[in-house]
Write a structure and sequence with these properties.
Layout (H helix, E strand, L loop, with lengths): L6 H21 L1 H5 L4 H14 L4 H12 L34
């Protein structure tokens, strides 16, 4: 039953293909980067990161906003003309909590 579910294959892949290289890289980072395939892989990762495509969450957020026809919301912080709720607010200290009460 255990062999038919594919769970054993998942365990082997996770242990051998994912965890072992992470452990080796954390214990021996310099030697790991000096392996035969690590230099091209390193530069491929750096080039991919500079393209910005690795920030896929922004792409997904934009795509979902288009799919669900969402509109951008404007924040109402009370800074429009004549709508300041509290006249005694020091605008220089907004966002900071004073230690003295």
């Amino acid at each position: 039953m255990f062999l038919e579910t594919g769970l054993l294959a998942c365990l082997v892949v996770v242990i051998i293909a994912q965890l072992m290289p992470q452990i080796v890289a954390s214990l021996y980072p310099t030697q790991f980067l000096e392996l035969f395939m690590m230099r091209p892989a390193y530069w491929a990762c750096i080039i991919l990161e500079t393209t910005g495509i690795t920030h896929i969450c922004w792409v997904l957020a934009w795509l979902l906003s288009k799919v669900f026809r969402m509109k951008e919301e404007d924040a109402d912080d009370g800074k429009e003309k004549g709508t300041n709720m509290d006249k005694n607010v020091n605008n220089d200290n907004l966002g900071y909590v004073s230690d003295a009460a």
